[in-house]
Amino acid sequence: KMDDDDDDIPQLSSHTLAALQEFYLEQQQREGMKTSQGLNQYSIGSIEEDWQLSQFWYSDETASCLAKEAVVAAGEGGRIACVSAPSVYQKLKELDGKDFSVCIFEYDRRFSVYGEEFIFYDYNQPLDLPENLLPHSFDIVIADPPYLSEECLQKTAETIKYLTKGKILLCTGAVMEEQAAKHLGVKMCKFIPKHLRNLANEFRCYVNYTSGLD
């Protein structure tokens, strides 16, 4: 009987095993590189992407562009909310601006290393937010819903509308253009965001104000 059970255990092919070993080796090398480069806690990549959580970090150039846009849009002394957009949050912290503040709304608790600026966020519970977080208390909300589905966008939109005083910068797939307009009244920008790894889906930015992304 036990022999029969053993037959049911799926065996990894030698090709899959080799690919796995290569992946782990690359991961170890990346961790080593991080240490040798002396990455600070806000560097993009200081916290690894978790593909199971549909995490894909922006390229450094894209994160810089979005962060600078957010600072200008928020204005002096402005408050910025990064919803499921941790690489923009990290870039904002690297800018080390004294005339704006920022919070990161994120499901991945690894980002709790950022202390009081971290707010646990699950898009399935869009308004399950801390009681002391007042509605419409952010000058701009940057959001990157983790999944390309209308349900995910619709629920994230509830959060965005609760948080923002008005300005919205949404990053999502080009296929979501119609739904983005429907749920948030945003229009596609000319600026094309890039990721550290190329995504299969074309990615775009959307805003509901006159931005520097056109």
From TrEMBL:
It is found in: Cytoplasm. Coiled coil: none annotated. SUPFAM superfamilies: S-adenosyl-L-methionine-dependent methyltransferases. It comes from the Eukaryota. One of its GO terms (cellular component) is cytoplasm. GO terms for molecular function: nucleic acid binding; protein-lysine N-methyltransferase activity. One of its GO terms (biological process) is methylation. Keywords: Cytoplasm, Methyltransferase, Transferase. It catalyses: L-lysyl-[protein] + 3 S-adenosyl-L-methionine = N(6),N(6),N(6)-trimethyl-L-lysyl-[protein] + 3 S-adenosyl-L-homocysteine + 3 H(+). PANTHER family: EEF1A LYSINE METHYLTRANSFERASE 1. This is EFMT1 methyltransferase. It comes from Mionectes macconnelli (McConnell's flycatcher).
